[in-house]
Write a structure and sequence with these properties.
Elements lengths: L1 H18 L20 H8 L3 H8 L16 H6 L3 E5 L11 H8 L11 E4 L4 E5 L5 H10 L4 E2 L2 E2 L1 E5 L7 H11 L11 E5 L3 H13 L5 E7 L2 E6 L2 H14 L5 E4 L22 E4 L6 E4 L9 E3 L3 H9 L6 E5 L8 H5 L18 E4 L4 E5 L3 H13 L3 E2 L2 E2 L1 E5 L9 H13 L8 H4 E6 L4 H14 L2 E7 L2 E6 L2 H13 L9 E5 L1
Helix pairs in contact: 15-16
Bound molecules: 2-acetamido-2-deoxy-beta-D-glucopyranose (NAG) (2 copies).
The site of one 2-acetamido-2-deoxy-beta-D-glucopyranose (NAG) has 4 residues, from loops.
Keywords: Signal
InterPro entries: Nucleotide-bd_a/b_plait_sf
Protein name: ATP-dependent RNA helicase TDRD9
């Protein structure tokens, strides 16, 4: 199956090359003679490669439509706001190595705000696509190159304006590039990931790892300088890669799924607790901190869905009566603890929200919550009321399930954190100095950007092991207790960043 796909892509590439599908104005597609396999052993190697790994052979500047320099000074060009450029004649990667930052450094005297994020470089083809911050900078850069002012390791860089019909965001770039090499299917990014800050060696290792862990539906593997795009045939394989990264990924790599949100699906048949999967999020050890997935990879304890009175009887008679309810089907987004906990207040002896901190545990990334009642009677009373009037969350109906396994109520934050981590991804936090290693963040408004802002600050200070979001509270487990001190030092040192007003407190 996989082979058939590779062959098809190879044919597509061959067709693009042969027919000169994309030819710049005034240039003829150069015959790529000699770029295909030279001998039989090379053919064998090629068979296992995807078109992304062969892209360097087909990508040459003459195939890319560039704009005539005269056009760049016309008012029309400046108005159209497409500051994309092709940089060619980069150094030969076999002779010297360079980084995206080296390229940025060359551009800085002529442009401000040029970012590594918006550079896609193909070292083997010695070219790079960049997005300049403004059109006004494009003629300046082209001129500087004509005057041979831009050099990298002794090579005079060449610069041309190009006009791809998209913003140079990762998905737009990927679709454009694939079209350029003859595959014009437009992807929505659901099955594509982009990994940034990854070295060539690491991306080769990752290619091997994919095979080792049995992720076989790689449709395309496109390594660039410090980046790699991976496209899969199966959505489940993207989810599996995310799960692998969540557990074993190198925190230096930044893994992004190019589609962040998934529409809620129709209810599945059968007794599955996740009637409306939509997307869940896995935690990562570095930016962007959360990976959207459609597969619930977290631990689902034994459960019995509450649909009618007989379910309560069934559970009561089973002997495994643990006064715990799991709520699933929580809507997208983050919620406030107070809003959710209020729904349960009347089922607890102390009618006080603060005392329920360890009893109402809302896991927004997993779209579920656990409620640990004080006794079975109250647990059943809640189930009873759900049967007569389903629990609503905003305008969403929530599904409720008896948990048929003991989940011990916590008496401390470390215990609660440990229990929730076991239920999240099965990893048990190391008990050593856990109390000293935990940070607690309280949010006023808990949007994803606020969480990201906090975690960005944390990782810049010290590494963390994992984090747990519980509605507008978040726990961060630092790798060691000195990390906690470093975070507080960092907090003192930096001026408050964007979204910081939404952070109420950070405590250890
Ligand atoms: C075929 O190509 C491979 C890789 O380029 C090379 O190592 C090998 O020596 C070549 N074999 C022959 C018979 O030319
Ligand atoms: C990028 O990777 C290098 C190692 O390859 C690492 O030292 C650096 O911290 C990483 N940068 C980020 C922002 O993670």
């Amino acid at each position: 199956m996989a082979f058939v796909i590779f062959r098809r892509l190879r044919r597509l590439i061959a067709a693009a090359v042969g027919e000169g599908a994309v030819v710049g104005p005034g240039t003829k597609a150069k015959k790529q003679s000699g770029s295909r396999a030279e001998n039989a052993s090379e053919v064998c190697q090629d068979e296992s490669l995807t078109c992304g790994e062969l892209v360097d052979k087909y990508l040459c500047p003459s195939r890319i439509r560039t704009l005539l320099p005269e056009l760049l000074f016309k008012a029309l060009f400046l108005k159209r706001n497409v500051p994309h450029m092709l940089i060619s004649n980069l150094p030969d990667y076999r002779e010297c190595s360079y980084t995206l930052n080296d390229i940025v450094q060359q551009l800085i005297p002529y442009t401000v705000g040029c970012s590594e994020r918006l550079i896609y470089a193909f070292p083997q083809s010695r070219l790079a696509f960049i997005c300049a911050p403004s059109c006004k900078l494009v003629p300046k850069l082209v001129e500087a190159c004509q005057k041979k002012e831009l050099k990298l390791h002794g090579c005079d860089l060449a610069c041309n304006a190009i006009e791809p019909p998209f913003l140079m965001r990762p998905l737009g770039f990927y679709n454009w590039l694939m079209k350029l090499i003859g595959d014009s299917v437009v992807r929505d990014g659901e099955k594509i990931v982009l990994i940034k800050n990854i070295s060539r060696t690491d991306s080769q290792k990752l290619r091997e790892t994919l095979k080792e862990v049995g992720i076989h539906s790689v449709r395309n593997f496109l390594p660039l300088l410090e980046k790699v795009f991976i496209e899969f045939d199966l959505q489940a394989d993207v989810d599996r890669l995310g799960a692998w990264y969540s557990q074993n990924g190198n925190p230096c790599h930044e893994i992004h799924r190019l589609k962040k949100f998934f529409p809620k699906m129709l209810p599945q048949s059968g007794n599955k607790p996740q009637e409306e999967p939509g997307s869940f999020f896995l935690t990562l050890k570095s930016h962007p901190f959360m990976f959207p997935t459609t597969t619930p990879t977290f631990v689902i304890p034994d459960y019995l869905t509450v649909r009618g009175q007989d379910d309560i009887e069934k559970a009561s008679g089973s002997g495994s009566m643990f006064p715990t309810i799991m709520l699933t089907g929580l809507p997208d987004g983050f919620y406030k603890y107070e809003e959710v906990a209020r729904l349960f207040l009347s089922y607890f002896p102390q009618q006080d929200l603060d005392s329920l901190y360890y009893n109402v545990l809302i896991l927004p990334l997993q779209k579920r919550a656990f409620v640990l009642f004080a006794d079975w009677t109250m647990c059943c009373k809640f189930a009873q009321s759900h049967i007569s009037k389903p629990v609503m969350f905003g305008c969403h109906t929530i599904n409720i399930h008896f948990v048929l396994e003991p989940i011990l109520p916590a008496s401390s934050e470390e215990m609660m954190y440990t229990t929730m981590m076991k239920l999240s991804d099965g990893r048990v936090p190391k008990p050593e100095f856990l109390q000293e290693r935990l940070l607690r963040v309280q949010f006023r408004d808990c949007q994803r950007v606020v969480i990201t802002a906090v975690l960005d600050l944390i990782v810049s200070a010290a590494p963390y092991v994992n984090f747990l979001t519980l509605a507008n509270r978040m726990y961060i487990e630092m790798a060691d207790s000195s990390g906690v001190t470093k975070v507080f030092e960092e907090l003192q040192a930096i001026p408050p960043v964007a979204h910081w007003d939404q952070v109420q407190s950070i405590e250890s």
